[in-house]
Each structure stands twice: as C-alpha cells, then as structure tokens.
Specification:
With 277 residues, the protein is of the alpha/beta class. It contains seven helices and 14 strands. The strands form three sheets. Strands 1-2-3-4-5-6-7 form a seven-stranded mixed sheet, with helices on one face. Strands 8-9-10-11-12 form a five-stranded mixed sheet, with no helix packed on it. It has a two-stranded antiparallel ribbon with strand order 13-14. The protein binds zinc ion.
C-alpha cells in the first residue's frame, strides 16, 4: 500500500498545514500512533476550532492554548484517549464547548456539550458519521478559503498505516461501508489523525478496501483447511512480531470473523471458527 511517512515533527508548536489550518503533533509517538496524535487548529473569523485535542499531556494542552488565543470549540473525532484525552483540560483552560458524536455506547466516557449529528453543519465544518474504527467516529469535511476540499479523516483513513478495527467498538462491516462512502465523495485532501496530509486520497482508500478483502479471502481459505482460533489465524496471516502490533492484528482478525459471521459465512465453535454450512 502507498503509505506516507514524514520526519519527526517539531513538538508542541503549531505549524501551518493549509490556508487557515495548523497542526500540533502531540508527544505520544508509538507503534499505534506514529509520531503522535495530530491536533488541528482551524482558524475562522470568530476564533479557532480545535479538532482532536489529543492525549492528556500538560505540555500539549499548553501548546494549544498558546497557539490559539480564542478557542471557540473542541471537536472530537472519536473517544479514544489519544484523541479526546485532553478535551476536559482544554475546556477547563478555554471555556470552549466539547463537540462529538452523541454517544459511543454503554459506559460512555464523554458527554459532549454539543452533540454532532451526521450531516449537521458546525460552522464551516460538516460532520460525517463514519463508524468502523470506532462506533462514534466522525470525519469532518471542510473547504479552505482557496477551495481545497479537505476531509479530516481521523483514524478512519490514515496516511501512515491501516486502522485497527477492534470489536466491540470497532466493526468491520461498518468500516467497509464507511470506506465505500468516502469513495462516493470528491474530497481532494485528507488530514488524518496520525501522519502527514494525504493527497489523492481515493487511491489509498481503494487500496485499504482491497487489502481488507484480501485478508477476508485469506481467512476464509485458511478456515477451508479446518476450524481455527484467532491466534492461529493471525499467525497464518500476519508477519508482525511487535507484541502491540500482533495484538492489534488479532483484533482485526476477530473483526473480520464477526463480519463473516454476520454475513452467514462462518460460525463460532467455542474458541474456534469454522466455515458455515
Ligand atoms: Zn488515534
């Protein structure tokens, strides 16, 4: 797949990305987060919209407050700690409301001040509900003053890596549908939750779908040789050695199996899975 890379960014400083959009990369680099979470600052006439406050790190919050004297809203792409962790601290520091998808399910960790519904504009920003990586995941469409059609793609589509789809919050059927949905749009540039900006985004979205379809076919082929558990399937399908990445890969395998189960193609047998019928 045509993933992108970038040099390690300057920490705790807002750097311009596009006309009216700046980025601060949080200092939470890691095997799942690349150089760290991207916090975007969208500068409007009325003040700055912060998109994904990022992890709860005091230096990161201070950098946001220092770069944006008047924060008017804190938008959250989804309720994973590397994206929303700093929301409460930033609200405390700025008084700005937190805006997110209404709920993420039982045990919700964040009640937004402003629930963001699918397709209901928030100033210059249009939220799109794109479940898959997370049930509450929103992408945000935005047009810059020079006409660039931007999609803030969160962790749904990232330039540097594929996404983890981990049940029960993650849902592979929803993820496929949310990727297909993006192919029906004409956004010209994605700004993801991790990694550099992604031009010509449909190219990667098609690759991501093809990659998942190939994984799904490989799982079905392996189950054709007999019932197997997720660990066995992961060993057969993935070469990942890093324990964190291997765990993530096994969650993806489970998500594929649940999708195939919903489609009536596989069935669970205790800890193992087999082809249905
Ligand atoms: Zn993330």
């Amino acid at each position: 797949m045509a993933f992108l890379s970038e040099p390690e960014p300057v920490r705790d400083r807002a750097e311009p990305v596009l006309t009216g959009v700046r980025r601060i990369v949080a200092a939470n680099s890691g095997p799942m987060t690349y150089h760290g979470t991207n916090t975007y600052l969208i500068d409007t006439a009325g003040g700055t919209i912060v998109l994904d406050p990022g992890p709860d790190l005091p230096d990161h919050v201070a950098a946001i407050v220092g770069a944006a004297p008047r924060v008017i809203a804190i938008l959250v792409s989804h309720r994973h700690p590397d994206h929303f962790g700093a929301a409460a601290a930033l609200r405390g520091a700025t008084g700005a409301p937190i805006a997110a998808y209404p709920a993420s399910g039982p045990g919700d960790v964040l009640t937004p001040d402003l629930p963001l519904a699918e397709g209901q504009s928030f100033g210059p920003i249009l939220p799109l509900h794109t479940p898959g990586h997370a049930a509450d995941h929103l992408c945000f469409a935005y047009r810059t003053s020079d006409g660039e059609r931007v999609l803030f793609s969160g962790d749904h589509v990232m330039s540097w890596s594929s996404s983890v789809v981990s049940p029960p919050g993650g849902n592979m059927r929803a993820y496929f549908a949310s990727l297909e949905r993006l192919l029906g749009r004409d956004d010209t540039l994605y700004l993801p939750g991790h990694g550099p900006k992604l031009p010509d985004p449909h190219h990667l979205v098609r690759d991501l779908l093809a990659h998942r379809r190939a994984r799904e076919a490989a799982i079905a082929a392996r189950l054709g040789d007999g019932a197997a558990d997720t660990a066995t399937l992961t060993d057969a399908l993935y070469a990942k050695q890093h324990p964190t990445l291997r765990r993530a890969a096994e969650r993806n395998v489970l998500a594929h199996l649940r999708k195939l189960e919903e489609e009536g193609r596989v069935a669970q047998l205790g800890a193992k899975w087999k082809l249905a019928g």
